[in-house]
Amino acid sequence: MTEDALEDLGWDDKLKQAFDALDTPGLIPARVVRENRGQYVVDTGDGEQIALLAGTFRKERESTEAMPTVGDWVALEETGLGKDLIVRAVLPRQSLISRQAAGKGSLHQSIAANVDSLFIVNGLDGDLNFRRIQRYLTLVFKTGAQPVIILNKADLIEDSEAVVSEVKALVPDVPVFAISAEMKTGLDELKKFLGTGKTVALVGSSGVGKSTLVNALTGCKYMDTQPNVDDGHRGRHTTTWRELVRLPNGGSLIDLPGMRELHLTGEEEGLGDVFKEVKEIGACCRFRDCRHSGEPGCAIEAAIKNGDLDKDRYAQYLKLKTEGLVSKSRLSDRMQKQITAEQGRRGKGELMRKVKFEKRKIKSANQKPWRKGDLE
Q: What's the CA gap between 265 and 278, in Å, rounded?
């Protein structure tokens, strides 16, 4: 393998120590570039190859979160046939972007791993939605990645800086940049988040220009793009898969599909980062378990009355908190159902094995002993 190529992908001393701790001769480190129907395209530093999961790997993992995803570092074993590689282990993750999967079929979906910065891309062509930004930030803050808000299509409005100031006031601790991926303006501001060993992921609703931004950062038409629909504002959804792309000046980029359904996974860590003022004011309530609903000495109600806390912003905080708690409750119920079903399947399988064993014993007992004269 090429050591420099691995370092460009993000290989470092911590990953090397974790890899060496496996203490298994013959393993090869690689990074997952793309998932493809149960197969994984991986980059070993010498180029891309196909890797398959070991049969025992899936059985030993109790949740989908433990399964490899785009951006993961994995330890591979050669099959000896000169073809596919086998995934034997997933190395510890620096960060994990995940969500509750859309619909009801799955409890959890890992989206991308080992991302240093996550660009939350929004369109300035009528797509900008401050509440959606808050929802994305709530999802991002708990991942371990640095959130960066990108206001794309700045060439379509007259005063993009005014919008930047408005968003910064909403989330003062998060970097905010107005760019035009189509015109390639404002991209220099993003260089501090790019470079050798760094990984950036792009997330945002469909049609905000993520694929155009990927093309601008890679310097070529890596992703297909489509023009806006007839109303002149809303863009079209283009990306339908997740893939890690190497950038020409070093580092990697992951373009994520537009999230048609964005569900919180039940964690509340992100809320405290997005709504810091709510957390700080709430800590001043007279009672520690204050519900902020008519209790004496409630600092939240006093702050809203005095104008120190925006009423609509607090209402959005409550909405996201309630959604997270409901999702967590539903997630627990569905997990318990899955566990019960799995226990039932295992119990049935054990019962069938016992029945077959007893049948073999009975059949063996009914057979006559074999004697030499039987063949004469």
A: 21
Contact assessment for residue 238 and residue 223, using Cβ atoms and an 8 Å cutoff: yes
Measure the CA angle with vertex 219, ends 217 and 222; round to 5°: 85
Pairing of strands 176-178, 109-113: unpaired
The two structure tokens encoding residue 318: 């409550």
How far apart CA 297 and CA 14 sit, in angstroms, is 49
**String of DSSP letters for 132-177:** HHHHHHHHHGGGTSEEEEEEE-GGGSS-HHHHHHHHHHHSTTS-EE
Tell me the C-alpha distance between 167 and 274, whole Å: 12
pTM of the model: 0.68
Max Cα distance, the chain (Å):
108
Tell me the chain's radius of gyration from C-alpha atoms. Answer: 27
Domains of the chain: 3-90 (2.40.50.140), 96-255 (3.40.50.300), 275-309 (1.10.40.50)
Contact present, 172 and 145 (Cβ < 8 Å): no
Q: Which residues contact 282 (CB under 8 A, 6 or more apart)?
A: 290, 292, 299, 300
**pLDDT tens, residue by residue, 34-48:** 987 778 999 998 888
Determine the residue type at 366: N
Residue 243 β-bridge partners: 34, 255
Kindly state the tokens that stand for 103.
């619909």
Asked if 238 and 155 touch (Cβ cutoff 8 Å), the reply is: no
In this structure, which amino acid lies at residue 331? L
Task: State the amino acid at position 353 in one-letter form.
Answer: R
Q: Please, are residues 76 and 86 in contact by the beta-carbon 8 Å criterion?
A: yes
Amino acid letter for position 7? E
The H or E element that residue 15 is part of is helix 13-21
Give the DSSP H or E segment for 112.
Answer: strand 109-113
- The 10s digit of each residue's pLDDT in 134-192 is 878 877 777 888 999 999 999 998 888 999 998 888 888 899 999 999 999 999 999 89
Q: Which two tokens stand for residue 376?
A: 């004469």
Taking residue 142's Cβ as centre, other Cβ atoms within 10 Å add up to 20
